[in-house]
Write a structure and sequence with these properties.
Elements lengths: L2 H8 L5 H19 L8 H8 L3 H8 L2 H12 L12 H17 L1 H12 L4 H21 L9 H18 L6 H15 L4
Helix pairs in contact: 2-3, 3-4, 5-7, 5-8, 6-8, 6-10, 8-9, 9-10
Length: 194
C-alpha cells in the first residue's frame, strides 16, 4: 500500500463514525422510551441497544441526563416551516396554537423537562433558537417591503415566556384563548393605532 493510499484511509468521511454512533444512541433512547420502562433507561441499556460501550456514551455526553436533554432538544425541532396562509397575523396565530398544544401536551412537557434537566445550556438554547427561527419566518413574510410589525424578542418575552412558565411551573396548561390574548396584547402594544 502506498503512502497516498494510507492517507485516504484516515480522512474522515462526512457523517462518519461519530454521526453513526449518535444516530444509534438516539435511536436506542427512543426505542427504550417507547417500551415504557423508565428503570430500563440506563446508560448500560442504551449502550447495549446502540451497539456501543457505556464509556462511549459517557465520553460524548457525560451523563444520562445530558444525553436525554440532547435527544429531547433534537425532538423539539420543528418538522416544517410555519403554515403560510397569505396573512402573517393568521400564520402567527395558527403557529402559536400548534406550539401551545404541542408544548403543553404530556409528551411536550416531558421533553421540556428533559431539555432543562441537562447541565449544559446549549440544548435549551437550541430550543429557543427553533422558536426564534419559526417566528422570524412568519415576521419576514410580513416585512416584505415594510418594517417588521413586531420584534421577535418582544414576542418571546410577551407571548412565549408566559406560556412556557405556565407549562413548566403551574398545573394549569395555557389554553387557546390565553395564548391568543397574549398575542393580541403584544401586537396591540406595538401598534396601538392599527
Amino acid at each position: 500500500m502506498k503512502n497516498s493510499d494510507r492517507a485516504l484511509d484516515v480522512v474522515p468521511r462526512p457523517g462518519g463514525r461519530s454521526a453513526r454512533v449518535q444516530a444509534a444512541v438516539f435511536k436506542a433512547v427512543e426505542e427504550l422510551k417507547q417500551e415504557g420502562d423508565a428503570s430500563g433507561l440506563t446508560v448500560p441499556a442504551i449502550a447495549v441497544r446502540a451497539g456501543v460501550t457505556p464509556s462511549t456514551i459517557y465520553r460524548r455526553w457525560g451523563s444520562l441526563q445530558e444525553l436525554l436533554s440532547e435527544v429531547a432538544a433534537r425532538n423539539l425541532r420543528p418538522d416544517a416551516p410555519p403554515e403560510e396562509t397569505g396573512d402573517w397575523r393568521n400564520d402567527l396565530a395558527i403557529w402559536l396554537q400548534q406550539f401551545v398544544e404541542e408544548m403543553s401536551s404530556e409528551p411536550g412537557r416531558e421533553m421540556l423537562r428533559e431539555v432543562l434537566g441537562g447541565e449544559r445550556s446549549e440544548n435549551a438554547g437550541q430550543c429557543s433558537a427553533y422558536t426564534r427561527q419559526q417566528l422570524e419566518m412568519i415576521l419576514d413574510r410580513a416585512a416584505e417591503g415594510e418594517d417588521r410589525p413586531i420584534d421577535v424578542d418582544k414576542l418571546l418575552d410577551r407571548v412565549i415566556a408566559p406560556i412556557m412558565y405556565r407549562i413548566l411551573f403551574t398545573t394549569t396548561a395555557p389554553d387557546r384563548d390565553y395564548a391568543q390574548s397574549l398575542l393580541d396584547r403584544a401586537l396591540e402594544s406595538d401598534h396601538p393605532h392599527r
